[in-house]
Amino acid sequence: MPQVILIAVIILLGGSGLAVLYKTRKASADELIQAAEAKAKQSIDQAARDTQRILSKANSDAQEILAKSRGSLDDEVKSRRQAVSQIENRVMQKEKHLDQRDQRITEKEDQLNSEIEKAKQLKKKHEILIQSLSEKLEQAAGFSSEEAKQILLTNVEREVRQRAGRMIKDIEDQARKIANRRAKEIVTDAIQRTAIDHVTSATTSVVQLPDDELKGRIIGREGRNIRAFEAMTGVDVIIDDTPGAVILSSFDPIRREIARLALQKLTSDGRIQPAKIEEAVEKSKKEIQEIIREKGERAADEIGLQFHPKIIELLGKLHYRTSYGQNILAHTLEAAHIAGIMAEELKVNVSLAKRGAMLHDIGKAIDFETGGSHDDLGKEICEKYGESDEVINCIMAHHEDEDPDTIEAILVKMADAISAVRPGARRESMETYIKRLEKLESIAYTFEGVDKAYAIQAGREIRVVVKPDEVDDPAIQKLAFDMAKKIEADLDYPGEVRVSIIRETRASSVAR
Predict the structure, then answer these.
(1) Which residues contact 221 (CB under 8 A, 6 or more apart)?
(2) In 3D, which of 418, 424, 410 has the Cα closest to residue 337?
(3) Cα distance between residue 299 and residue 312, in whole Å
(4) Which of 23, 51, 244, 476 has the highest count of CB atoms within 10 angstroms of its CB?
(5) Are residues 180 and 263 in the same domain?
(6) 177 lies in a domain?
(7) Residue 172 lies in a domain
(8) Is 89 part of any domain?
(9) Residue-range definition of the domain harbouring residue 327
(10) Is there a contact between 218 and 263 (Cβ–Cβ < 8 Å)?
(11) Tally of structural domains, the chain
């Protein structure tokens, strides 16, 4: 607004007014400048005075701080000097103490050297004295000291050997007695506590007929019934002059048992024709499968173990397998009980011992189908169905196909042998039995000096009578040992065979 007014005034006044206004404004501006310069000078002077005052104060403070620092530094230097002086005093005292100790040690060393020298002189005198006494003793005894030492050592060695031999023999005899007694206790207890039927079980292949007229029905018109029966069952039917009996022949015990059941059903019904034969065979197969499963499960329950369903089925098949007339499933259960009891007595793995014994003959469930060793077949079965390496080793070691890796494998082998060789466990044919006895006696006759040989106790002992003029008393022990080794190498037999040598010298005369 003032600018507008100023412009209006300038317009009204014209040129002369503008000049006057310019002079007025210039004078006012000069006054303002002078006033500003004066004020600025005052401010500068004031700032200079303030600066001088601050510098003076800072210089005073700095002098004060410097004086304090110098005093503190002097105190610290004085303290350090005192500490160094004390350390120097302690070091000097220690050096003095060490010097005194070194001097005492030197004195003791001199004293010790003196004592050592005296001891050496005494030792030399003693050696001279001992040498002199030894020479006099040797002259009096008539032999040298070396000879005396040798005699003494020889006597001492002989006495020590005799004592050691007696001690070793006593210890061995005692240990053998204890071990034998303990082993017999464990084995006897295991056998006594085994709840297995000891009656020999064998699957028969003879079917009894109520009437011989049924033989004709079994054969059928032009033999069609017997051909159909043999084709469906896979067994051979032998019909001969045996009264009231038909013989079924097959290497497969399962097929033979199916055929036996089917033929019993047909003979009971009386109607024998291909359709009835097929129906009876199918029913028998189902019954056998159910019996197999039931036998396997019952065996597993009796022993208290869990198995794969396929292994349960194979265990059930063992019910129809025999070895020397001994039922394999009954043998397996018996061996498992015996192995478990012995493992419990010895404080080892009872479950592993039972499992190994239960599966040691599992390969016999299929060996008649596939052929091959039942040990190898058992190993394949157990590997297929997830059994452990320890169980497989029990299977392979029970007939020494592998070395036993565990105590349980040894127990399985022992349990198998105990179950197999116990009285009444197995049967063998008369021909095989006689051949084994003859072989046992013939082995005895191969040795020189043998007069007579008798196999007794069902081949478990061979008694040999030797010629007294050819075999003396010391030689009969070696003869018994050699004969036992030859029997082990040349003859297969259950259990063990005792060799008894008899030598008898007789003298006679006639009194007249």
Answers:
(1) none
(2) 418
(3) 9
(4) 476
(5) no
(6) yes
(7) yes
(8) no
(9) 206-421
(10) yes
(11) 3
